[in-house]
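ingest -> validate -> predict -> emit
validate: passed (alphabet ok, no gaps, 241 aa)
predict: started
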Amino acid sequence: MITPILIGAHFLADFTLQPNRLADLKSKKISYVLLHGLIHAAVMAGVGFSCVDARAFVTPFLIIALSHVAVDILRQIIDRRFPNGNVLFWSFVTDQAVHISIIIAVSVHFGLQEYVTPALTGALETDGLRQYIVFLILLITVWDPAAVFVSKMFSWLDYRDGHEPAGDAKTGRIIGKLERLIIVVLVMSNQLGGIGFVLTAKSVARFKQLEDQNFAEKYLVGTLASVAIAIISSVVMRYYL
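emit:
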């Protein structure tokens, strides 16, 4: 259970606690990359040292924190050199894949599950608290990280040099977040039939726009990606219940 908790901490620091303003400044000055690295390290330290024995987590923490800054700097160099939607999307995907892979590798290599603190062990053995932790990790995952992924995917499809597609992007992002949240609840409650109702309601609101083939194709891709993230995340986390 410690691995998904650390991944949840990563998502919290890398997305929820990284406003758009900071993300923009990171692309201009390396000092802001370091600032983000400090925020990420603080969150990871707070969560990690609360869940794992301090002596066992020191080296894993340093690896996660330092590698995060190094990967972010490398990504910024690539993004500045190739500032187009195609590169920006795949650099984002690769960046997250590397961060998550490092967390998983460190957790497995150092056997962090064997050094879980008594407090976390007690919480995980209590059904109510265990469910709360699982839902919290799911909420963190499907809220901001998934929204950013879908947004960057639209930029990639539009190929507009990394800028979000014009229009009601903010409203669409909120709809997507609520959609994923509802799907998570439905999957975790074993009410899969309700997913069809959610997708139908969303499609009705976009009925007129669906007459535009270009919009309809992007809408379908975005919806399927959003739903897939919610379902896959829920299925994976159900294992930990």
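The longest helix spans residues 127-158.
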